[in-house]
Amino acid sequence: MMKLFKAALLAAALAMPMTPAISLAATPADILVVAQNIDDIVSIDPAEAYEFSSGEYVAQTYDRLVQYDAADTKTLAAGLAKEWAADDASKTITFTLRDGVKFTSGNPLRAEDVVYSWKRVIVLNKAPAFILTQLGWTPENFDSMVKTDGNKVVVKYEGDFASAFVLNVLAARPASVVDAVTLQANETNGDMGNGWLKSNSAGSGPFVLKTFRPGELINLTANAEYFNGAPAIKGVIIRHVAEAATQQLLLESGDVDMAKNLTSDQIATIAGKDTLITETYPQAAVHFLSFNQKDEALQPEAVWDAARYLVNYKGMTDTFLKGQMQTHQAFWPSGFPGSLDETPYTYDPAKAKQILADAGIKTPITVTLDVINSTPFTDMAQSLQASFAEAGINFEIIPGTGSQVITKYRARTHEAMLLYWGPDFMDPHSNAKAFAYNEDNSDDHYQSTTTWRNGWAVPEELNKATKTALAEPDQAKRSAMYVDLQKKVQEKSPIVIMFQAATQVARAKNVEGYVNGATSDFVYYRLVKKN
């Protein structure tokens, strides 16, 4: 019966539109074949790519002057620049390019390519352009801010931040360096090659695009001349397979080497098979419970303190959140430089009740809890409702659409809120500003931060520490500052950070070297081997 079911499921997969033909033979020894849902891709041009799957693609085909590499996704390392010198006083960084680097077209890397790449992002002004424009760059001033000097690129920036922050901005996706000569040759009506790059690559990365068919596949060929060492495999084929059941079937039958969108139930089933292996990777989003400080009943710090012991962290991650989230209690995600991975709080209702009693807090307290009306958020809300009731804090759950919940949150009209937050780029300030900074808490000074939205007038000590860390030029010292800042927020804040999202990947046991960092920009195939 199971064989008949598998046969029927495979037949259905073969009949699906926009799905590539699937062979029943084993995958080639030197090609990695991946089953993945990639229908989110709007563009694969690094100046426009702003989706999860397109970010993964850019990481394979392009480089930046400085980058977090497959060998160590936690350390900012030399990329196309072999060295750089920062002058924080004059807000200038001078990058010296590597010698002998070539784009996959064969064209040599030049300083002019770097300048063209960044200016192209600013001029095209697509979705991710804001990441670079925060350096004070505009189409009008760019030529005076970024210049070439032989094989050097001299960068000027504006803002109250140190060069360490700028380096992380320039390690982000839109700062990828493109082959200016190739793009200029393929420009149409002043589009700076944007149309051509929707189906081609013009980078220097470990892979070159062979074929891209939207909603169908991405076919990558290894770049044998890659400056950091040629990939161990000759290519990667990412097949668009939308259905998780079909992904599982293809993986179990050996028609793909890796499946990336399986459910937690499927992962549990696969975990017991001798030929397959599953791994869990932390992702960037952190999930939190927050208390609006405009509500007088939620202002006592004892309420915040008790709340940290009323979350059934393990109970949720061992059941309905298994494989989807991991306990994490700091605002900067694990897997990023500067993260605080200590989890000092556990579910302890007796301790929570004592904290409230010692502070003279009268219970019961009734609090409305806004939540997005979908799984797993509604399940999380129900768990919180049950566990907080143990200490006399009674949640009245108010489910709503995502837009309804967010609109209420931005208006600061909620009482308690269950939501999540993710960084826009790889720098701890992206989250520190959201969780540890708020110098103007007035209603007419809207800020897109968790602190302002929860009406929390952040203590001056934390505001000052956030600005000091942003301006610190030494990367190691700066990371240590953010760890200390997280400890303070972890200990005393009306925002209770509970979990970090996770993703699970299943693969054949003969596949080694796959790297899946905390964002799609940190997915790397260049170290993969098939034994």
From TrEMBL:
Domain Solute-binding protein family: residue ranges: 77-442
Source organism, top-level taxon: Bacteria
Keywords attached to this entry: Signal
Keyword Signal: yes
Record SUPFAM superfamilies: Periplasmic binding protein-like II
Signal peptide: 1-25
Compartments where located: Periplasm
Alphabetical list of InterPro entries matching this protein: Peptide/Ni-bd (IPR030678), SBP_5 (IPR039424), SBP_5_dom (IPR000914)
Predominant location: periplasm
Recorded family membership: Belongs to the bacterial solute-binding protein 5 family.
Name of this protein: Peptide/nickel transport system substrate-binding protein
Phylogenetic lineage: Bacteria, Pseudomonadati, Pseudomonadota, Alphaproteobacteria, Hyphomicrobiales
